[in-house]
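$ ./design --mode recover --in tokens.txt
reading tokens...
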């Protein structure tokens, strides 16, 4: 299965290359002038289908230029403006933020910040949807071991488990969707309300996963560069087709643009978790995280994040404390390619009481999990605004508790809206 995943990733990359070679190339100046003309024509029209068609024409022209040369800041600025006029604020915001990293004149930067302020104030609906195919070499993250060593009066002896957790591979289908609406309460206040649904299915149903969540609460636009939200979260999780656990609690989010290129984000949450099957795992779950996004150049982006987590379950052995850190980078290349990579390290300590997996009854289980993700997509390929993205993920966990180590390789072919 692992070899198949690597082969699938390479095959996906080759398909992206082949499709890109077939992508038509026109003179850059001609396409740029055509895009500017389409924007000018749209601005002279009332809102309606004809205006949207002109903006789509401009977006296609600017997008085609950036496929071949993503470093052209002026073209990216016009693409952002076209998205702004069409009120596709999510895409417009991302391109405007990239423009700010291009050492543009102060007058241009001030104008971009004005666009960002307008979009932040008028934000109303936001809708998400995606789907993918996800092969996995070890769906249940099982160790594959059958034998455990136990200390006895006759020394340390091996014992074979009656029902060991064995590695099982499979191909999953995933779908996710969600949305949010923001209602204006005052010039600096919004009421946020939204929800998300994600589902992943495997053959047989034993490893199926589904999550349904909703949130609501105020959003405060503190100043031109700072905002915060206080939300009430409600979540429901299913596993193997049956209810697994539910959560409810507050979540605090904050964001501030530190410089043209750097944005800081953070969050704090505390949820009360209740399990359907094992009440000994009930208890509060707390999380704290922070992140920095640095747009190094219009084609290179770095992301750093770290966090803490704690689960205070009723059963001592199910209590845990986690620390994690992640580093990612993405690079927009020629021929329409964007490649990205993310490395994550997580360390978790559990409570005592892990006999017979730990020989010492007073010892705590300690896990270290490493995850590496490599992704690629092509900006030249789009169907109704969605582009294919292939990902390859390698994950391994080392534990001092017997039969809790594992390794898995997974992949995913997603359809995402990226330009």
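writing sequence...
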């Amino acid at each position: 299965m692992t070899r198949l995943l690597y082969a699938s990733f390479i095959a996906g990359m080759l398909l992206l290359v082949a499709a890109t070679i077939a992508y038509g190339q026109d003179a850059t100046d001609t396409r740029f002038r055509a895009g500017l003309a389409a924007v000018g024509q749209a601005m002279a029209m009332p809102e309606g289908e004809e205006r949207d068609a002109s903006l789509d024409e401009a977006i296609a022209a600017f997008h085609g230029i950036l496929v071949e040369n993503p470093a052209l800041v002026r073209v990216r600025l016009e693409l952002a403006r076209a998205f702004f006029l069409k009120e596709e604020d999510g895409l417009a915001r991302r391109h405007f933020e990239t423009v700010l990293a291009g050492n543009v004149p102060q007058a241009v930067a001030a104008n971009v910040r004005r666009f960002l302020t307008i979009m932040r104030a008028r934000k109303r609906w936001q809708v998400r949807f995606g789907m993918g195919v996800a092969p996995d070499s070890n769906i249940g993250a099982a160790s594959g071991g059958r034998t455990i060593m136990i200390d006895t009066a006759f020394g340390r002896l091996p014992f074979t488990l009656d029902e060991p957790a064995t590695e099982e591979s499979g191909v999953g289908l995933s779908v996710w969707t969600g949305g949010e609406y923001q209602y204006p309460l005052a010039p600096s206040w919004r009421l946020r309300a939204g929800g998300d649904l994600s589902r992943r299915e495997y053959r047989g149903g034993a490893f199926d996963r589904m999550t349904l969540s909703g949130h609501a609460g105020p959003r405060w636009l503190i100043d031109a560069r700072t905002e915060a939200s206080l939300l009430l979260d409600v979540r429901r999780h299913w596993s193997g087709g049956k209810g697994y656990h539910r959560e409810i609690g507050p979540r605090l989010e904050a964001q501030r643009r530190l410089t043209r290129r750097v944005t800081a984000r953070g969050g704090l949450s505390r949820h009360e978790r209740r399990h359907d099957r094992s009440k000994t795992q009930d208890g509060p779950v707390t999380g704290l995280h922070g992140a920095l996004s640095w747009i190094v150049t219009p084609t290179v982006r770095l992301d750093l994040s770290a966090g803490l987590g704690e689960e205070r379950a009723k059963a001592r052995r199910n209590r845990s404390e986690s620390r994690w850190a992640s580093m990612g980078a993405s690079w927009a290349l020629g021929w329409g390619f964007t490649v990205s990579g993310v490395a994550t390290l997580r360390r978790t300590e559990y409570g005592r009481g892990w006999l017979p997996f730990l020989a010492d009854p007073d010892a705590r289980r300690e896990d270290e999990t490493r995850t590496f993700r490599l992704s690629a997509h092509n900006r030249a390929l789009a169907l109704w605004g969605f582009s294919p993205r292939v990902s390859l993920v390698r994950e391994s966990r080392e534990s001092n508790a017997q039969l809790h180590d594992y390794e898995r390789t997974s992949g995913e072919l997603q359809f995402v809206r990226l330009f």
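exit 0
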